[in-house]
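U., I forgot to send this yesterday:
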Amino acid sequence: MIKYIRGPWDHRYDAILNYMVSKKLIKVHFSNFNKSKKAMCLTLTELGIDISEQIIEEEPVWVSRMEIINAIFPKNATNERIDDYIRKHFPSLMLGIEGE
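Result:
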């Protein structure tokens, strides 16, 4: 069982990750988050990188969406920043919170 830092907002989360692992698109490993906690890390495999490059060429709409997401949530975005943004703009996505 996976313990989520935030989410999952999509009930298909487990199935999607398991599918990507089974197709050798991603690797799952654990890394030290701090002295007492570990974090689950997802890394693209060589095949995953190849397919992502194909998506970049064939799906410009996806690419522009990912660029927007990366602008809103840079690599150093904290969990609190992401949670606050989701709560403010998409409250119905948070578990246990009704949409307006």
